[in-house]
Design brief:
The chain has about 300 residues and is of the alpha/beta class. The chain has one domain. The protein has eleven helices and nine strands. The chain has a seven-stranded mixed β-sheet, sandwiched between helices. A two-stranded antiparallel sheet has the order 6-7.
């Protein structure tokens, strides 16, 4: 087994490098055709994840898991995820001008960011695995440095490679363990720190509360709310949505400020619910851009009943 794991990790690393080299050289139209085909194959072959995804979208759409519309949205999510992967492969070769052209920030959202930063306490940037959150983060980081707290891949060699690619775009990736000091330092510099909220079962391994999401209660990490409560930094909930031409639009909601009372648990629950409600509003119009291939809710729910 000791030999197999390094071999597997090395194979994955070099497979990614070779695929990325091809993606960066082939015409974008051809790459997207291949990405959609790959997503279709994954949907058909990855049976366990397909059923989990359908269970999640049954809740989002308030339909039974076997409903044809649930299957259609799930299928499109796999296809969009294929596009997302090729974009991450192309990401290192994107120049600043190309990134600026690819992702347009909604004017109202830009104003929300500006007003949040005027408080001088940094910004807590919250999103989900939706649209192309990585490219969107790099686009925002052109204007405000971004530090993201995220779980590491098991394949450390591939993880190091991907982290280095992001650092060239002014995005720093930190593992959760030991990140507190660097996160607080970034906020003191009036920079952004980012967190993903849709962790599914992983949320139970962290400090968490239950919040209502698409009408059903489930666990969400409280780290963003807790950090805002302690630091006074505003929370910006945002998403980067894909257009039909595979360009992107960055959209945010007005800043959320966490009230600090003597009841810390209530403060965190209210703030987390506000974050989740904002995410739901951003995701609802285009649910097929959500890459949620792990159970988001604690048990299968027949949302149609």
């Amino acid at each position: 087994m000791r030999l197999r794991v390094p071999f597997r990790d090395g194979l994955m690393y070099w497979s990614w490098r070779v695929a990325a080299a091809m993606v960066q050289r082939l015409p974008a139209r051809l790459v997207y055709v291949a990405a959609v085909l790959g997503g279709e194959v994954a949907y058909l072959a990855w049976g366990g994840r397909r059923e989990i995804t359908k269970g999640n979208f049954a809740v989002v759409l308030r339909r039974a898991p076997g409903d044809p519309e649930v299957a259609r949205v799930s299928r499109r999510a796999f296809r969009n995820f294929g596009k997302y992967l090729t974009e991450i492969m192309r990401f290192p070769s994107m120049g600043q001008a190309e990134l600026h052209e690819l992702v347009k920030i909604d004017p109202a959202s830009r104003e929300y960011l500006r007003s949040a930063r005027e408080h001088g306490r940094g910004i807590i940037f919250v999103s989900a695995h939706f649209g192309n959150f990585e490219i969107g983060g790099a686009r925002i980081a052109q204007e405000i440095p971004l530090t993201v707290v995220a779980d590491e891949l098991e394949n450390q060699r591939l993880m190091d490679f991907l982290v280095a690619n992001r650092e060239h775009k002014n995005v720093v990736i930190l593992p959760p363990e030991g990140a507190t000091r660097r996160v607080l330092a970034a906020l003191r510099r009036n920079e952004m720190v980012g967190f993903m909220m849709d962790l599914g079962p992983r949320a139970h391994e962290l400090a968490n509360v239950e919040a209502t999401f698409f009408g059903v209660r489930t666990a969400f990490p409280t780290i963003a709310a807790a950090l805002a409560r302690v630091s006074g930094a505003p929370i910006i909930v945002a998403a980067v949505t894909r257009a039909r031409d595979n360009s992107f639009k960055g959209v945010a909601v007005p800043p959320i400020f966490v009230e600090r009372t003597t009841e810390a648990s209530s403060d965190l629950e209210r703030a987390t619910q506000a974050i989740v409600h904002a995410l739901e509003g951003l995701m609802r119009p285009q649910p097929d851009q959500w890459y949620i291939f792990r159970p988001m809710w604690p048990a299968p729910v027949d949302a149609a009943t």
